[in-house]
Amino acid sequence: MEPLETEPDIRVGVAVRADTVRVRGRASIAAMEHGRVVFRLPGGDGVRATADGRSVVVSGAQSGRYETLTFVSLNDAEFVIVNGKAYRGVIEVFALEGRLTAVNQISLDAYVAGVVSAELGRRGREEQAAVEAQAVVSRTYAIDNRGKFAAEGYDVAATVTDQAYGGVDAETDQAWAAVHRTRGMVITYHGEVISPFFHSTCGHVTASPEESFRTGRSRPYLRTVSDAKPGGHYCDISPRFRWSVEWDGATLTDILRRTLPRVIGVEADVVDAVRDVRVRKTGRSGRVTELRIRVGRGEVPVYGPDIRAVLARPDGRILGSTAFEVAASEGAGGVVQWLTVHGSGWGHGVGMCQWGAVGRARAGQDFATIVTTYFPGTQVERWY
Question: Which of 50, 86, 272, 279 has the highest CB neighbour number within 10 Å of its CB?
Fold first, then answer.
């Protein structure tokens, strides 16, 4: 991939395979098909669209049937609103296999401005370098993933499947300052744009891809990086730096009867009783890469990428990370009565630790230092 002559656009799936899409404008908007205006809506008015095969069906005052619709604001200072969220750029709505997709086509830097605060939250002035680091990582991710969902008609999703993108409402002055400060800058390794990852809290050290991902491919710039500092860790300011979860035996059995079939295909009746849960292997970062669950009929191995989903919390959400220790309390008949997990960090652990970046910014590190620390051997280069 070569440097770009100008800032590119990116297509973001803001509603994907939805039953209904609602579109309106803060000011007047126009709906276009094949380059011509088919109807206009005054500010505040909107339409409801559904799908019929490959057709977009609009109901209400502007009812009609279309191949595709592109919505644009007729006021440069205002925006198109989709399902209650405002977006810069244009919105394209089309049908695919009886469902609707709404795509926000927007300049790359405007997209990054809508990602940074959605991902990192509002930060203090002394933490601006972390916001700038997130802007560089998010821009790099977007460039590396253009065309990822080309068959679906967009580049990246607006959810944590890719990056959280909140549109105009997620933008802040701080995010825009970070975008302008880092304009066009991406992370490269030997002159090529990298495939970056990031997560909330590493807990003490970041992970390698093979520890956390099913198809994790080893890359020289994605390796374990210590987050230690004198007297602690950069990410120990995170509310999820340390955590614990506890299950009683009945709850644990019920959860495993639901998660093991769904995640790894083990039949539910295999889990007649849970007799032990133990860590069998850990990876370079100390994260669990193989968990063994002993039931009445033997042991069930669960590997790194599946562990968080299999060992779900009592509320049904996935486990915070795979950096943990387990302690089982045995009851009558050798069955687990209580299971406790003491964990570190939050997320998959690969790439940039977001809370670590905040801690490093507080310590005076600039965005380039933060980024190249979490992606060893890389450089920050201006790509457009």
Answer: 86
Chain position carrying tokens 């502007």: 62
- Cα separation of 261 and 243, whole Å? 27
Comparing C-alpha atoms, which of 207, 205, 206, 200 is closest to residue 228?
205
- Cα separation, 49 vs 166, in Å, equals 21
Could you state, in chain order, the average pLDDT of each consecutive group of 10 residues for the chain (384 residues)? 88 97 95 96 93 92 92 94 97 95 98 96 96 98 96 96 96 97 97 96 96 84 97 98 97 96 93 94 96 93 96 96 95 90 98 98 98 98 95
Sequence-distant (≥ 6) Cβ neighbours of residue 193 within 8 angstroms: 1, 140, 143, 144, 186, 187, 383
The percent of residues above 90 in pLDDT, for the chain, comes to 91
The answer to whether 201 and 281 have CB atoms below 8 angstroms apart is no
Which residues fall within 8 angstroms of residue 98, CB to CB, at 6 or more apart? 51, 52, 53
CB atoms under 10 Å from CB of 81, counted, come to 23
Distance CA 57, CA 87 (A): 22
